[in-house]
Specification:
The protein is α/β, with parallel strands linked by helices. It contains 14 helices and 10 strands. The relative contact order is 0.13.
Length: 405
C-alpha cells in the first residue's frame, strides 16, 4: 500500500536513492573505520583544542549516538526522527520534499514565524495566509475551512507556542486539524514548548500519517550556534524528508556540543535555567504592565514577551537609533519587523515595532522582548532579564528579538 508521504512527495524525491549505508560506517565499524570511498585527508588538522578531534573526517549524516539521545529526549524512537541544522533546516527539507514549484501550496497563520513562507517561496510554492483571531489565538475552524478550499495544499504550518505572539495552541485544536485534513501534512512547530505548559505531540506524530513535529536545541538548551534541530513523524515520512538533506549536513563540532549538552548530568541544569527564564519573563512582564504606554503584555508561551502599545510612533522615537541604519526593502517597510533579519508580523491589526526605525503598521504595534539573559551593551537592542538586571520600566526602551530556530 502506498503511504500518504509517498503520495504527496515530489517525484524527484521518490526517484532519489536512500543514502549509502557506508555513510553510517562509524556506527557499524566504530569511529576508527577506514572509509576508502570518502577521500578524506589522513593527517590531523592543524588546529588546537576540541576542534582537533577527528575534524579531518566526515561526520555521520545522522550520527547514531545523537539520534538516540534526541529520540529519548522527545519520547520517540530514533527512526522517527531526522536531525537537521536547526528547525529551520527541517522546514526547508519538508518544503523541498513535498512541494512542486508553481503547483503546490503551504498554509500559514499570520502573524507567525517568517521561515515557513520564506522556504516555501524559495521553492516556488504558493503561500496561503490565514489569520489568527484578534486576540492572536488559533482558530481551527477557520483554518480548516480555508485549507479545504485549495486541493493543492501539501503542508500546513502551526506554531505552538506561536512566534511572535506566544499564544499556545491546545493539542485538541491541532489534532482537530490533523483529522480534518487527512491529505495534508500538518507541521507543528514546538520550538518554544519548553517555556510553556503544553505537552508535546511528538509521540502522537509517530502514530499519525500526516503530523510532523519540529523541535530545536537552540532555545531551551542554549545551542543556537550549534544549529541542531529535528523533525519527528512516522518512519516513512521522515525517511522521505531525509532524502532532501545534503550528504553531510551536521558539523562534527555541533554533534559533539549537542551530545555534551544533553548528557544526563546536565539535564537538571537545563531544567533550572528554563525555570529561571520563565520566572524572569513573568517578572519583566509585570514591570512592563506598569508602563503608561503599554496597553497589553502577552506572556506565558516562550522565552519572550509580546507587547501591544497605543502610540507606536512615540515608542519608536524613544528607541535607540543605529549608527548606520541599513536601507529597508519595500516588503519590510510595508510589513514591519522586530528583527533585522527574519521575523515578520504579517498583515494583522498589530505589527511588531522595529528597533531603531521609525516605521510601524496601523495604530497598534507590538514589540517583542526576549527573556534570555544577556549583558547590556551600548547601542544594543538587547536587554538582560537575568536575575541581576532590569529594575524599572525603562527596560521598555530597548527591544530585542529571537527569530531563528
Amino acid at each position: 500500500m502506498t503511504t500518504l508521504a509517498a503520495r504527496l512527495a515530489r517525484p524527484e524525491i521518490l526517484a532519489l536513492e536512500p543514502f549509502d549505508i557506508a555513510a553510517q560506517a562509524n556506527s557499524v565499524f566504530t569511529a576508527d573505520a577506514i572509509k576508502l570511498d570518502a577521500n578524506e585527508n589522513p593527517f590531523a588538522p592543524l588546529v588546537q583544542g576540541p576542534l582537533s578531534q577527528r575534524i579531518n573526517r566526515y561526520p555521520e549524516p545522522q550520527p547514531a549516538p545523537l539520534r538516540r539521545t534526541m529520540a529519548a529526549l522527545y519520547g520517540v524512537e530514533p527512526e522517527n526522527l531526522v536531525i537537521t541544522r536547526g528547525a529551520d533546516d527541517a522546514i526547508d527539507i519538508l518544503v523541498r520534499a513535498f512541494c512542486r514549484p508553481e503547483v503546490d501550496a503551504v498554509s500559514i497563520c499570520q502573524p507567525t514565524f517568517s521561515a515557513y513562507a520564506h522556504f516555501a517561496r524559495l521553492q516556488g510554492a504558493r503561500v496561503l495566509e490565514m489569520r489568527l483571531k484578534q486576540n492572536f489565538d488559533f482558530d481551527p475552524a477557520s483554518f480548516i475551512e480555508a485549507a479545504r478550499a485549495d486541493p493543492s495544499l501539501k503542508l500546513a504550518f502551526i506554531c505552538s507556542p506561536n512566534n511572535p505572539t506566544g499564544n499556545p495552541v491546545p493539542a485538541a485544536d491541532v489534532l482537530r486539524v490533523v483529522d480534518a485534513l487527512p491529505d495534508t501534512i500538518i507541521v507543528l512547530d514546538e520550538a518554544y514548548i519548553e517555556f510553556s505548559e503544553l505537552e508535546s505531540l511528538a509521540p502522537e506524530a509517530t502514530r499519525r500519517d500526516n503530523l510532523v513535529i519540529l523541535r530545536t536545541l537552540s532555545k531551551a538548551y542554549g545551542l543556537a550556534g550549534a544549529r541542531i534541530g529535528c523533525a519527528i513523524g512516522n518512519v516513512d515520512l521522515i525517511a522521505l524528508a531525509g532524502r532532501a538533506l545534503p550528504p553531510y549536513p551536521l558539523p562534527s563540532v555541533s554533534i559533539e556540543a549537542a551530545l555534551a549538552a544533553l548528557s544526563p548530568s546536565r539535564r537538571s541544569v537545563h531544567e533550572d535555567r528554563i525555570a529561571t527564564l520563565k520566572a524572569e519573563r513573568e517578572r519583566l512582564a509585570k514591570l512592563l504592565e506598569s508602563s503608561p504606554i503599554v496597553r497589553k503584555v502577552r506572556s506565558g508561551g516562550g522565552n519572550f514577551l509580546f507587547l501591544e502599545v497605543d502610540e507606536p510612533e512615540a515608542l519608536s522615537a524613544k528607541l535607540p537609533q543605529p549608527r548606520h541604519p541599513r536601507p529597508l526593502s519595500p516588503e519590510r517597510r510595508a510589513w514591519g519587523s522586530a528583527s533585522q533579519h527574519r521575523q515578520r508580523c504579517g498583515k494583522c491589526s498589530s505589527a511588531l515595532l522595529p528597533s531603531g526605525y521609525g516605521w510601524t503598521k496601523n495604530r497598534r504595534a507590538a514589540a517583542k522582548w526576549c527573556a534570555t539573559p544577556r549583558r547590556r551593551v551600548s547601542r544594543s537592542r538587547l536587554i538582560s532579564t537575568g536575575p541581576s538586571r532590569v529594575g524599572s520600566t525603562r527596560a521598555f526602551l530597548s527591544s530585542i528579538t529571537c527569530s531563528t530556530r
